[in-house]
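Issue 218. Parser rejects a valid record. Input:
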Amino acid sequence: MSTVSQPLSAMCNGKITTIAKETATSNLSWNPHPTFKGVTLKHLICGADTDGKFSAHIVHIKAGCAIGEHTHPGQWEIHEVIGGNGCCLLNNSPISYKSGAITVFPPDIKHQVEATENDLFILAKFIPALL
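Output the parser choked on:
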């Protein structure tokens, strides 16, 4: 991880509390994205915890890497940038990604995200759950 912001550090060293359990986020593994090189995900909240209603994940995109154009059929998605910088293309319109940026994606809308000079960290939330 190149640039580590205070919100990112707090999130990666915090805890997730549900009615059924409490989990230290530092104990959760980083999982390689099955399609996009240089992209890993830490699954904070999965559909199994929410009856499939929503999920939340930290997405780490290494500098110079990207999540290519894609959609999420039938799912809303929210990005909260928690570290680094990059660019999102939402329906071919560029959005600057830096700490504090929040983007809302309606279902079925094409988008892509690229990390520029630093690694990019996003808290991504999906409704209904991604997994």
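Fixed in the parser; the record now loads. The helical segments are 6-12.
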